[in-house]
Amino acid sequence: MAPTQPAITVKILSESPNLKSIPSNYVNSAMYPSDSPASDPIDSNSIPTVDFSLLNSTDPHQRSEAINSLNKACQDWGFFMVVNHGIPENLMKEVIDGTQGFFNMREEEKKEFEGKHVLDPIRCGTSFNASKEKAFFWRDYLKVFVHPKFHSPSKPQGYSDTMSEYSEKTREVAKGLLAGISEGLGLEECFLDKALDMKSGFQIFIANYYPRCPQPELALGMPPHSDHGLLTLIIQNQVGGLQVQHQGKWIHVNALPNSLLVNTGDHLEIFSNGKYKSNVHRVVVNNTRPRISVAVAHGPSLEAIVSPACPLVQSESNPPAYIPMKYKDYMELQQSNQLHQKSILEQVKILRN
Predict the structure, then answer these.
(1) Rounded to the nearest 5°, which phi and psi values hold at 50?
(2) Angle CA(179)–CA(182)–CA(186) in degrees, nearest 5?
(3) Contact, 213 vs 22, CB < 8 A?
(4) Contacts 24+ apart (CB under 8 A), 195-198
(5) Within a 13 Å sphere around the CA of 286, how many CA atoms are in the beta-carbon half?
(6) Which helix (H) or strand (E) holds 223?
(7) Distance between CA atoms of 170 and 96, rounded to whole angstroms?
(8) Structural element, H or E, at residue 92
(9) What 3-state class would DSSP assign to 173?
(10) Please, which residues bridge with residue 51 across strands?
(11) What is the distance between the alpha carbons of residues 297 and 144, in angstroms, rounded to a whole number?
């Protein structure tokens, strides 16, 4: 049975005077002992790095090497850092500052943008899906649909312009990465773009606020999960907390300065017929300072029916591993349920004897 819906945001809760422990309905360690952040993650410098400038190189050898490293990162990790991506450092800072400004607004101001349905173009709230969860997550969020039609909250001043510019820049990076991924799968550079109608591709701007937590070992910012869509591009303030799963272990992400962190999503796994796996990741919290992250998810057109790419399933030895499903329906299913590992992706897998 789900706990009572949270009456206030976690930010307000965390700022309560003399808060020494978290309310019982935020304790995740008892609900998901194997997911508990109490088990020490590994700090790793082995997370792959992709140099975006080489991916766009006119030198065929450099571009080929960059595509190979991107292909390997998608196969082995489902997670990588992108450097030399061309997004100005000051714009990335403005995005984080504007996000801080949004979460600093009065509660009644934020309530104007609450939203009710998972497909409302602007929605802010707390946890993930409070009506389904066994325990709440230590996180407040703002989710905004920014493509193919751009939406944004009207406050704070200037945030909309920053959001628009940043969304456009990340779209360009995602487009370049997906072209490289398409080639890495042995397809034409534009194959994925055309097959999934990326000109009308769905892009969502997700701003996250993880307040200081007095008992971080009991709480989770976000549970282990994979993302819907193809690629999610992430930036954060100078506070870590993102952990990715690799070979059964949790790896703490130490981001390179000004890099973009990139997760592969469920629909890249489906499109590649399982050659690339969507990455499972989680967010842990700390007891010293808030973490802010902005994740921009890039998916196919909402109306696109996503299935394994035809050229990848033409032999009897490699049949389709996933059933076709409209992206909009998949997203609604995921966002309306409890978030746990890859539970929604499992529902579209074709089981074979």
Answers:
(1) -115, 125
(2) 140
(3) yes
(4) 195/271, 195/309, 196/230, 196/267, 196/271, 196/300, 196/301, 196/304, 196/306, 197/300, 197/301, 197/303, 197/304, 198/300, 198/301
(5) 10
(6) strand 222-225
(7) 15
(8) helix 89-103
(9) helix
(10) 83
(11) 10
* Whole-number Å distance between alpha carbons of 244 and 250: 6
Distance between CA atoms of residues 31 and 23, nearest Å: 14
Specify the amino acid at residue 266. Answer: D
d(CA 190, CA 183): 8
* One-letter amino acid for residue 155 of the chain: K
Bridge partners (DSSP) of residue 341 are: 225
Are the CB atoms for 100 and 159 separated by under 8 Å? no
Q: Which of 53-62, 133-142, 216-225 has the lowest mean pLDDT?
A: 133-142
Tokens of residue 42, six digits: 């590994």
Residues with Cβ within 8 Å of 61's Cβ and at least 6 positions away in sequence, in order, are: none
How far apart are the C-alpha atoms of 200 and 222, rounded to whole Å? 29
Rounded Cα distance between 266 and 252, Å, is 22
pLDDT in tens, 304-334: 999 999 999 977 778 999 999 999 999 888 7
Residue type, 76: D
DSSP string, 228-295: SSSEEEEEE-S---EEEEETTEEEEE-PPTTPEEEEE-HHHHHHTTTSS-PPPEEE---SSS-EEEEE
Q: Under the phi-then-psi rule, with left for phi > 0, alpha for psi from -120 to 50, and beta for the rest, what region is 141?
A: beta
Is the bond into 148 cis (omega within 30 degrees of 0)? yes
**Using alpha carbons only, what angle is made at residue 281 by residues 323 and 211, rounded to the nearest 5 degrees?**
130
**For residue 82, which of 50, 45, 44 has the smallest C-alpha distance?**
50
Quick one: pLDDT band at residue 58, thresholds 50, 70, 90?
very high
Q: What is the pTM of this model?
A: 0.92
Query: Cβ atoms within 10 A of the Cβ of 188, count?
Result: 13
Residue with the larger pLDDT of the pair 132 and 146:
146
Closest CA to 231 of 197, 265, 269, 194: 265
